[in-house]
Design goal:
Largest sheet: 6 strands, antiparallel, barrel
Shape: globular
CATH topology of the largest domain: Thrombin, subunit H
Protein name: Serine protease
Number of helices: 1
Distance between the termini: 24 Å
Number of strands: 14
CATH architecture of the largest domain: Beta Barrel
Strand order of the largest sheet: 9-10-11-14-13-12
Oligomer: single chain
Order of helices and strands: EEEEEEEEEEEEEEH
Number of domains: 2
Radius of gyration: 14 Å
CATH superfamily of the largest domain: Trypsin-like serine proteases
InterPro entries: Peptidase_S1_PA (IPR009003)
Organism: Methanosarcina horonobensis HB-1 = JCM 15518
Strand content: over 45%
Mean pLDDT: 94
Helix content: under 10%
Structural class: mainly beta
Length: about 160
């Protein structure tokens, strides 16, 4: 099953699916775009060879169209609650202490414990509060133990 937090492989490295959405009846998985060269890049998920369909550079997002018969779990989005705990979740690890420090129209600013920071393979991982995805991990600053995530507000408003 393809769902938020599942892995894919690109150029021999693991990546994380941040969300699975349906736009106008077409299924897409969503992750961060900074790990790809551009549209048309190849990746593998659950043994299927897929291609990056669309890069949204303004938001560091990549959309990958899925075959219509794919077994998926559509991602449920929530609204971020500032100063509340959240979790970074993927199929290899969970970071339980992640606090939403600030949320804007397109980005979430996150605080982590310095000994439990996201790693490079965690880019694109869903940030979850109350069982709903509130954002996709985008970048971290190790010296401040802070991170940024693309907000669910952007993910919920996507159109292709």
């Amino acid at each position: 099953m393809i769902k938020a937090g599942s892995s894919f492989f690109h150029n021999g490295k693991r990546g994380t699916i941040g969300a699975v959405i349906s736009l106008k009846g077409v299924l897409y998985m969503v992750t961060v775009s900074h790990i790809f060269r551009g549209e048309g890049d190849r990746l593998t998920v659950n043994g299927m060879r897929l291609f990056v369909t669309r890069i949204l550079k303004d938001h560091n997002l990549a959309l990958i169209e899925l075959p219509p018969d794919s077994e998926v779990e559509i991602t449920e989005f929530g609204s971020p609650a500032e100063l509340e705990l959240a979790k970074l979740i993927n199929d290899t690890r969970t970071i339980h202490y992640c606090r939403v420090v600030n949320s804007g129209a397109s980005l979430l600013f996150l605080g982590f414990q310095c000994h439990d920071m996201p790693e490079p393979g965690d880019s694109g991982s869903p940030i979850v509060q109350g069982g709903k995805v509130i954002g996709l991990m985008s970048s971290t600053t190790l010296d401040t133990c802070m991170g940024m995530a693309v907000s669910s507000k952007i993910l919920g408003s996507l159109e292709v």
